[in-house]
Each structure stands twice: as structure tokens, then as C-alpha cells.
Amino acid sequence: MTTTYDLIVIGGGAVGENVADRAVQGGLSTVIVEAELVGGECSYWACMPSKALLRGGGVLDVAQRTPGVREMLSGSIDVPQVLKRRNSVTSNWKDDGQLKWLDSAHIDLVRGHAVFTGPKALRVTAADGTVTELTANHAIAVSTGSLPLIPDTPGLAEAEPWASREATSAQEVPSSLAIIGGGVVAAEMATAYTSLGASVTLIARGKLLANQEPFAGEKVADALTKAGADVRLGTSVERVETADSGEGHTLLLSDGTAITAEKILVATGRVPRSGDLGLEAIGLPTGGWLKTDDSLRVLDADGAPIDWLYAAGDITGRALLTHQGKYQARIAGDAIAARALGRPVDTSPWGVHSATADHAAVPQVTFTSPEVASVGLTAAEAEKRGIRTRVVDYEIGWVAGATIHSEGYEGTARAVVDEDRHVLVGVTFVGTDVGELLHAATIAVTAEVPLERLWHAVPSYPTLSEVWLRLLETYGRPTA
């Protein structure tokens, strides 16, 4: 039997849910196809469990630097309680609550793995072998996300390394953990597992958090070292040897040293989850990112949009962040409904059906201790784009709100100013709880608020937000 919907969404994570929800609100009949848990990677194996693992250490760090509170502390984390809380955050890897939401949102669900059989057509195979044929009146949207990249380092596969899923869902903390990689997952898991009592070694070929402003990775590396982690930058793993018993691994590094660890976590990047979708049936290469226009229509080999095929989230390679994927999803769902029903479609820059922010105003928080919060361009990225810039730095620890926050508060704020337009094109904060400063920066960058107007956005005293005033003062107040 073949069932027809206006829209079929492949992937029931946060991104796919948002595509479906917007399309239903726009008047389209919609079904989600999901082979695993509805709610996806973010809910069960990424954003939510990782932050639950990090929260205890972050709170303890602040408490230990707060007189009157630190005297009450035992100085250690109750690891079983942290893991129990993490399990609760993931609903113990059950999606009952998500199914109730789908029902309330009038979105149908088909369980199974989807493969394209032709334009607007899918075959879905359930775990028990049951096959469902689906066709779309108007569109299919792909929101299948990404997978961890596992390098072909000799001996690594035999060591059965963790990837991000295993790290965020582990029910026990290993005595020692070697983390390969220098990006967000590596930095966050190094922070979490160090706070949970593991002996952590982080090994990165280059710098830590290399895509951020240089001082961000430097401050996080320093904090990890002070917390007891062994941070090895500028080196790589050449070979892994596993003990005959299968317990314990030796990692031989390019600098001639070696380390041993009970577990290995590989956090060296992501690849698109598109290799098993049958894309060849619709004339697209198998296994690559699905490139899109700004209304999230997939582009064919000639760069032309396919009018019935959309993609959103990690699978596009645009910005591998849940919140940015949900932003794309809202735009895609609205665009699908508008085109299907003959409504106006606005794909102009910053238009209602254009994911313009992907190019200029992507916010991100790395939940290390200290946190790293950034939006827009780094100074180096702005220079590469030919923007005439001025960089303004200010130490967050100098503002009154930081003094009250905790003893010895250390942090840095950086604003990257477009000198020709007198607007911010990038902002970075490093420090405890700076993630709460980021949305103000995101609004300033997205709206291209002139610096002259920002002088009238008065930060409340005494809060960390006072750093905004100090950045403006450092830059210099405009004269009439």
C-alpha cells in the first residue's frame, strides 16, 4: 500500500520536528519517518545529555570560588547522581513524550529506514521488515543529521573507541580517558569527564577550538590543565595498541610519546548521514552533504534548486548546531507550505524564507569551564572577507558584576567592528556563564545595530552585561 502526504520529513530529530510543525501550521498533511528515537541526536546523545554531564562541574567551580558557600562543600561530585540526572534529562532514552507531542501537533509517524525510490517517493523498512511506500504531493525534506568521523588510524578500530554517543550515554566513568580531537565535543567532554574524576588526556593535531578566536582555546586549555587534564596540542595519534586482555589501550603519538587509557573517545569531526538514503535514485551523489539554497531547497549537480526536495540541519553542512538547524527548519517548513499553496515566497536577504543568518550571524556556546560564547565572524574571518575591521578587547573580570559573581573571575570579551559601516560583525565572550550574554550580541550582529545606537542600550548594574558598555568605551564614543 502507498500512502500519500503533502510533505514527508526524513528524520525525527529536533530539526525534522520543526520542519513538520511549520508545514502543518501552514496547512499541509505531514508525516515524519524515523528509524530511531523521535527527538533525535540532540535529545538523547548530544546537546541535552552532554550539558547534564557538564552542569555539576560548572556549578561546583563557581561554588568553590564563592566565599560562604565553598566552606560547605565536600569538594567532590556525586557521580552516580550526575549520571542519574543525565538519564532523567534523556527520558531514559525513551521517546514517549515526543510521541505525545507529535499527536498534539497532528504529525503522523512512520517508524523505519527511508530510501528514495524516485522523485517524491520513498520506501520505508521497519525493524521487523515491514515495508511502507510513501509518496509526497509537494515535497520531501531530509533532516537526517550527521555521524562522527572515525579516522583510519592503525589499531583504533580494534580499540572499540567511543564516539559522542557513547561518551554522553555512558553509565560508568572510566578511570582514564584519552580524547582525540580539538573541537567542541572534545573540549566539552574533557571538561565533563575531568570534573567526574577521570584522568583525561586530550590530544589535538592543532589548537583547541581552532575555529574560535585564539584566546578562547587558550583559556579553555589552561583551565583544563589547572583542573588536572593533560592537554597535548600540536600532536596526533599514529597508532593504537590494545592489551591482549582487551582492557587498556596505548596511544603512540607523533611527538614520540605514548599515553595509556582505559577508554578512547574520538571527536575529530562529523560526516553527513546520507550514504544510505538511496540518493542515486533521484540523481544525486551518495554520501555527501546536501547543498541547499537559502530557502533550503537541495541543489542538483548544476547548482539549480530541486523544486520538491529540501534539507535542513547538519545534513546541509551549513552550520552543525541544533539551534541553527531548527532555524533552517522553520524557514524550510514555511517555504514548503508557501510554495505548495501558491503563497508569496520571500527569499531576499533576511527575508522570511531565507536562512541568511547561516552566513553572518551564527551563535554558538561551548559549555566548558570557562564557557565560550560567540556569534558572527572572528577577526581572522572578517579580514578574509575583506572587511576593514577594528578589534576591541575587554577583560570581563574588571566589571562589577564579575566581582560579585565569584572570586577571581577571569574572562575576555572581544568585539569585531566593521569600520566602514560602524556595526558589529562578530562578538566573542569567554568566562563563566557568558552564554547568557550571547543573545544580546546575536541581536546586535543580526540587526546590524549601529554603534551610535548601542550607546543607548544601557546595561543593568551590577551584571556581567556591563561589559557591553566597557567595550563601547574602549572603542570610543562617537562625536557629533
UniProtKB/TrEMBL annotation:
The highest taxon in the source lineage is Bacteria
In alphabetical order, the GO MF annotations are: dihydrolipoyl dehydrogenase (NADH) activity; flavin adenine dinucleotide binding
**What InterPro entries does its record include?**
Class-I_Pyr_Nuc-Dis_Oxidored, FAD/NAD-bd_sf, FAD/NAD-binding_dom, FAD/NAD-linked_Rdtase_dimer_sf, Pyr_nuc-diS_OxRdtase, Pyr_nucl-diS_OxRdtase_dimer
Signal sequence region:
none
Cofactors demanded by this protein: FAD
UniProt key word Flavoprotein: yes
GO biological process annotations for this chain's record? 2-oxoglutarate metabolic process
Per the record, the similarity remark reads: Belongs to the class-I pyridine nucleotide-disulfide oxidoreductase family.
Name this polypeptide is given: NAD(P)/FAD-dependent oxidoreductase
